Amino acid sequence: MQVEAVAGKAAEQASVSGKGPAHEAEYDLRQIDCDPNFWYPIAWSHKVRAGKVFPARYAGHPIALVRPESGPVYALEDRCAHRQVPLSKGVVEGDCIKCCYHGWAFDRGGKCVTVPYLNKEGVGRPVRSYPCREKGGLIFVFPGDPALAESVPLPEIAQVGNPEFKTRRFFPRLKCHYTFMHENLMDMNHQFLHRRQMGSITARFMGQDKGENFMEARYSFARKGGNQPLAEALIFGKHREIEGKEQPVEEIVSIRTTYPYQTLKIHDKDGDLVMDLWVAYVPLGSDQLGTQTFGLLSVKKPKWAFLLDLAWPALGLFTHRIFEEDREIVELEQKAWRELGGDHTIEVFPVVKALRALLARNGVPNARARPLEKG
Ligand code: FES
Ligand SMILES: [Fe+2]
Predict the structure, then answer these.
(1) Which element (helix H / strand E) includes 150?
(2) Ligand 1 atom 3: residue of nearest CA
(3) Residue 318, SS3?
(4) Which of 130, 257, 269, 373 has the fewest CB atoms inside 10 Å of its own CB, making it the most exposed?
(5) The domain that contains 244 carries what CATH number?
(6) Any coiled-coil ranges, and where (predicted)?
(7) What is the C-alpha R_g of the chain?
(8) Ligand 1 atom nearest to CA at 84
(9) Which 3 state secondary structure label does DSSP give 343?
(10) Which of 236, 258, 261, 263 has its CA nearest to residue 247?
């Protein structure tokens, strides 16, 4: 009893004070929340039009994104301080957002500047404001301690804006904890799942790098059988087949989790970057068992750029199909976690073990997290 009480207290403190080495690998990974002291994308820039307000969400917190006719976009708690009606139902007036119900108006700092029916200063209450930035066609907020926002950089995002690349957006919503997604992308040993899309290829582990807040695994692929799909050929180049022999494929796929983001880069045999994927996994509900993905996939334009334009729909379909296979699997993993009441996975691949430790170390145990039983 004593031990439990102390451990419970530790979890409570961890969730208040943030991360710390004390909780590494001690909690069920699916009860470790994202560290809020990072920039998280919560909407695409083009969805928040000038003079409009847009409803978004981070881990159960409703957030109204407001873009005045002029000036940068800003983020407020999406609950009016008066009766908690969503501010996203309101109207943008000048630099303020006016609640749809009684017309209280809030400025970009969240201060209530007008209560229209009481001609008096200082009667309204403020709402929470979030640090807010735009980059790469995404709107980011900083859900944690606003005092830290300035010192935390926005991430580098794929090749958005680089004319040598063509970039597509994707944004699936998944019924699973964000950690399943990190594991799925990092672990290239699951190509068997994608055999119908990619034929029979196997991943060869080429090495890794690790640090306190990142890890990278590198792979190359060998084709054992089946035909190379057209879309894959466009990214990797045509693989010459030699009858009956396993072909070395000289591209290197590097997958990296730099907490809390993930990237996958492909370099061709000359070391040139040919594909660059950037993904953020943003928790939706307060239990963080649902995830909104924001992804940008950049593909290097070939010499004849129109070929890529022509192949673009096929490429979209190819990546969509692969992603749908992954989606089904990660959601099934989450389902098993719910049914079994916790994590019963057996991990044998050192890369994934290290990734799990990284996610545990950098995240924050939630209020329900209890230390794992040892032994
Ligand atoms: S609920 Fe917003 S002004 Fe009354
Ligand atoms: Fe996959």
Answers:
(1) none
(2) 102
(3) helix
(4) 373
(5) 3.90.380.10
(6) none
(7) 23
(8) 1
(9) coil
(10) 236
With a CB cutoff of 8 Å and minimum separation 6, the contacts of 324 are none
Please check whether residues 217 and 307 belong to one and the same domain: yes
* 61, 126, 215, 258, 279 from 261: Cα distances, Å: 20, 32, 11, 5, 6
Q: Token match 């119908």: residue?
A: 196
The verdict on 194 and 99 lying in the same domain is: no
Give the model confidence (pLDDT) of 176-234 as tens digits: 999 999 999 999 889 889 988 887 777 888 899 999 999 999 998 776 665 666 655 66
Alpha helices in 169-268 (DSSP H): 178-186, 195-198, 230-236
Same domain, yes or no, for 64 and 198? no
Instruction: Provide the token pair at 336.
Output: 């098993």
- Tell me the pTM: 0.88
Structure confidence by residue, pLDDT tens digits, 125-175: 999 999 999 999 999 999 999 999 999 999 999 899 999 999 999 999 999
Task: Render 153-187 in DSSP notation, one character per residue.
Answer: PPPP-TTTT-TTEEEEEE--EESS-HHHHHHHHH-
Q: State which residues form the domain around 92.
A: 44-151
Does ligand 1 lie within 6 Å of residue 89's CB atom? no
Report the nearest-CA residue for atom 1 of ligand 1.
Answer: 83
Ligand 2 mean position, distance from CA 190 (Å): 6
Whether residues 328 and 188 fall in one domain: yes
